[in-house]
Amino acid sequence: MLLGPGDDAAVLRAPDGRVVVSTDLLIEGRHFRRDWSSGYDIGRKAAAQNLSDIVAMGAQPTALVVGLGLPGDASADWLDALTDGLADECALVGASVAGGDIARSDTVVLGVTALGDLAGRAPVTRSGARPGDVVAVAGRLGYAAAGLALLSSGVAGPEEFAAAHRRPVPPYACGPEAAALGATAMLDVSDGLVQDLGHVAAAAGVRIIVDPATLPVPPAMAALAADLGADVLEWVLTGGEDHALAATFPPEVSLPPAWRVIGQVAEAAGTGGAVVEVPGRAEAPGGWDHFRG
Questions:
Q1: Residue 22: left (phi > 0), alpha (psi -120 to 50), or beta?
Q2: Check: CATH 3.20.20.140 for 20-117?
Q3: 241 is in an annotated binding site
Q4: Any binding-site annotation on 89?
Q5: 98 near 33, Cβ under 8 Å?
Q6: Which class is 134-277 in CATH?
Q7: pLDDT tens digits, residue range 108-140?
Q8: What pTM did the predictor assign?
Q9: What are the start and end residues of each CATH 3.30.1330.10 domain in the chain?
Q10: Binding residue per annotation — 7?
């Protein structure tokens, strides 16, 4: 950042000559609740879900700009905590909050735009997956969904899952790492593993087969699902907001420990077939859709 907040616009250096841009909207009552999450938590979450989109392209995040709608009952301390959360999450990847705007609104609304730099690499898109590639994930799956179910139930349970709903932990370093390893496709898992892998399959014209036996299910998550009468694999397969990374790689690539192989890419099965298959499941599970009834 060459010129930060204080003028009409910030000035950023773009050493690669290209700028990676992503934006996300967070609305109180849909993406977070102030009775469940502190201002600091919300700031961390708002930054994380945008920074994760940048690393999913294989880029290095550089800056955020933030538009904020704020009710009159929000205190100065709450706003300070929110801005601290944004700044602290950015610090994890060496990025900065370059500026933004604020207005009064009935509920808290955050519009965050993230910027990044490719450092000379080609972007890793969703459309590059090829039959024969392996499918791998880095980061946590199902934690935020487990936390949402726990908080919604009102019962006591493992704090690690409630914390995961309030504040995701994306595997930031794994995005540029995957690009350097030759990932053929990659994306941020924000709406559920199966739904997001469906975007890769559709963009590349392939079929993706996920082996449920390879999916990591912590014993504490399985126990919580049993207590709540939930299907733990449903959390892992369809739960969003953990912001793990899913990528496809040529089969000969030796993956570092942070990446777990969970499936493979196959030839498309023709029109009408599921583009993502999970053997042993009665139907291909979905994920989060803002406009699904």
A1: beta
A2: no
A3: yes
A4: no
A5: no
A6: alpha beta
A7: 999 999 999 999 999 999 999 999 999 999 999
A8: 0.92
A9: 20-117
A10: no
